[in-house]
Amino acid sequence: MATENDHILTIAGKLSEYRPLRTQRYAAVNVLLITWADHDFKPGFDKETDDLKDMFCETFRYDVWPYNIPSKDAERALNAGVAQFVKRFGDEDNLIIVFYNELLPLHIASWLGEDALVIRLLETTDPGVKSVLGFNAVHFACLGGHLSVLRILLEHNVPLVAADFRSITALHLAIFFPPADLALAVSLLLNKGCSLEAVT
């Protein structure tokens, strides 16, 4: 009879097998990263956008094409920019279009693996607060592959809910943990009630 530990190791193994397949399948992905040319977001927003671009380039080896929506005739300019991107780079399977709006400090700290900052922010921030796409801090900790941050968030009972975007759960994002941390991350998520049934 299989034990719970065997089950966790099986899941971790399957996620590890998927990692190289993900890299092979999406080796030629083009990302259109859309932001506002003239924005009044918090200081540091432009650096966040650059960090997001770097993540796509360095972690996934995607090609990123920034597009800043002008304040004048924004809708027409955006429609034209997206149409040109799609025409230039092909079909829907190798294109990603991201409209990047503000993330909360808790999301960024979780994504970047800043343990001390996450602890401090949890004193004043609703732990379940979501981004525009519906990701909470646990999603971002998994996206960054930060086991220590995941533990902190789970100790603070951050909800393990599916995101609004394609119903992505933290367990789906566990593929981003380093191989050495993957089994423990999966175990922590399952023990806290993350669903095995959710599909994207």
From TrEMBL:
It holds the Pfam family Ank_2. PROSITE patterns: ANK_REPEAT (PS50088). Keywords: ANK repeat, Repeat. SMART domains: ANK. ANK repeats lie at residues 133-165. It comes from the Eukaryota. This is Ank_2 domain-containing protein. It comes from Cephalotrichum gorgonifer. The lineage of its organism: Eukaryota, Fungi, Dikarya, Ascomycota, Pezizomycotina.
